[in-house]
Every structure is written in C-alpha cells, then in structure tokens.
C-alpha cells in the first residue's frame, strides 16, 4: 500500500501533454497543494483550471514562491538538467521526464548533485510500470526461457496522431533544437531492453528521415545490439507507420516470450512442454502513469531509491546517442 501524500506540495514545470497528464494524476493521488509553470499563457490557464493549482510563467519564480516538496520536469529535453538542478538546489525531490536530456553534458553533475543532496530523482520511463513489461522482466529474471539468445522490440505510430490537438511540426518530437528525433522520443524501448538484458557491448544503427513529415530529425531507426554474453537485440522505433504498434519478443534456449501492447497478456512458450502459456492482466493506458507517480511519491516519503533513477536515465540516453553516432558513421560503436 502506498503512502498518504495529501500533505505534499508539487510543482509541474511544463503544461504540455505529459505535464497536464501528470497534474491530473497528482490530483487523483490526493495531492492538494499543486502548482504549474508554463510560459504559454493559454496552456497555463488550461492547466490551472482546477482546484488548488497555482500558476507561474517562470520556473525559478515558481520554485522560490511555492517552495515545492517535489518537482516534475516536463519541458523539452534540452532544459531538463538545468531545471532538475534548480529543483534539487531548492531541496525538492525531482521527477524528470524522458529522455533525461538530449546530450550527456551536465548529466553526471546532476547525478552527483542528487546523491549529495539525498533527494529522490526519478526518470519518466513509464513502461517499467506496465504490467506486460513487468511480466517480461519477471520471467526473464526467473529463467523461464533459459539463456536469452535474442530480443526484438518495436514501437511505431504516425507522428501527427500522437497528440491530435497539436500541430506535430511545433512539437519537440519533430525539432532537433528541442531535443526531438525518434531515437530520443521513443527511448522507452531502449530503456526496457537495458532493464531486461543489461548493457550492450556493441551498437549499430540505421536511422534517418524516410517519410515526408516536416521534421529535421530522424523519423525511423533500427538499432542492433550485441551483449557481452553473446545475446543480440534489434530495436525498431519510428513515427511513420499508420496505426499503433508496440511489441516485444524474447527468445531463449528454453522458450520464447511474446508481448503486444494492444493485447493485455504475455505469452510464454516452454520448450519442455511444447505448449504456450498465457498470463493475462487488466490494463488502462493511464495506469502506468499513475503507478510511476505513486512510486515516485512513495520513494520521496520513505527516502528509498526509485525503480528508474538518474543512472538508468543516463544509460538510456547514452545508448540513444551511441545509436545516432553509429547511424552517422556507418560503423559499429562500442556500448556506452
């Protein structure tokens, strides 16, 4: 059972799609002392249109005036490190949306600052709270498929369909200067592959713009990974395919795992029995966002390490950047 968080104060920096979702979920989790910060007057007005939410146009003014217990950084990636540092300096626990940043510069200093401050810092890789991905992790760790030989992961959806009420061309996803590109934006897949298999020894990648979408960063990428024990993985991410796809398949010496985001189950083939088993679960998309926030607030209250800490965020970022470098050079890169 989670803690009672009604007495906590929370500041959400950035009132875009994900910031607004987190604000709603904080209310649902019982927080009443809430504030939101966004330089866009229309977005700010829409976000504070609810009980107990103060509005600010500038982050540092909000930190000084509101003095929050926890801060959620939901701005474009290039500002994440600076805002997270400011929150830590103010004594707050920090939740940083993914990716942790768009470059590695400053990330190690942020990790060290959080450690010295004794504050909880979590990164928003919400798939780690999805029951299907959690079941994959449990079964892989339990040896249900034996030694893992290969993994294949995919996610894809037409970018204009991501946020129907927003012009995709203005989103950070489509703009290099705002930290966009599918390798960073869809780094959820890279994060959970690292969670399942550990860090790779080699990284190769083919990435680029394959569609007519108006964006100045890659819209499609396939990342190939080789792990120290010999296992291989291919991770495909894109924002060009029509419809929504998100799947993972793990093959091992003793069986195979299969997961499809659109079907609430994980399937396990056991070589010993020659049959498939099915593990079903109930799931609504917002559940994992609520779960990650509840976990963050529990960790802040108890002073315990989160499931997805800054070091995890750094690893996923480093892998995404290594994949980009491999795509540019056409060569295999060493694992980050």
Question: How would you sum up this structure, described in words?
Answer:
By secondary structure, the protein is of the alpha/beta class. The chain folds into two domains: 9-125 and 288-307, NAD(P)-binding Rossmann-like Domain (Rossmann fold), CATH 3.40.50; 127-283 and 317-334, Dihydrodipicolinate Reductase, domain 2 (2-Layer Sandwich). The chain has ten helices and 15 strands. The strands form two sheets. Strands 14-13-12-11-7-10-9-8-15 form a nine-stranded mixed β-sheet. A six-stranded parallel β-sheet has the order 3-2-1-4-5-6, with helices on both faces. Helix 4 packs parallel to helix 5 and helix 8 packs across helix 10 (310-329). The model has no long low-confidence stretch (mean pLDDT 95).
Query: Could you spell the SSE succession in H and E letters?
Result: EHEHEHEHEHEHEHHEEEEEEEHHE
Poorly predicted runs of 5 or more residues: none
Global outline: globular
N-to-C terminal Cα separation, in Å? 37 Å
The amount of helix comes to 25-40%
Look at the helices and sheets and give the structural class.
alpha/beta
Q: Number of DSSP helices?
A: 10
CATH class type of the largest domain = Alpha Beta
Strand order of the largest sheet: 14-13-12-11-7-10-9-8-15
CATH architecture of the largest domain: 2-Layer Sandwich
Largest sheet descriptor: 9 strands, mixed
Strand fraction equals: 25-35%
Average pLDDT reading: 95
The strand count comes to: 15
The CATH topology of the largest domain? Dihydrodipicolinate Reductase, domain 2
User: What is the count of structural domains?
Assistant: 2
Radius of gyration: 20 Å
CATH superfamily of the largest domain: Dihydrodipicolinate Reductase, domain 2
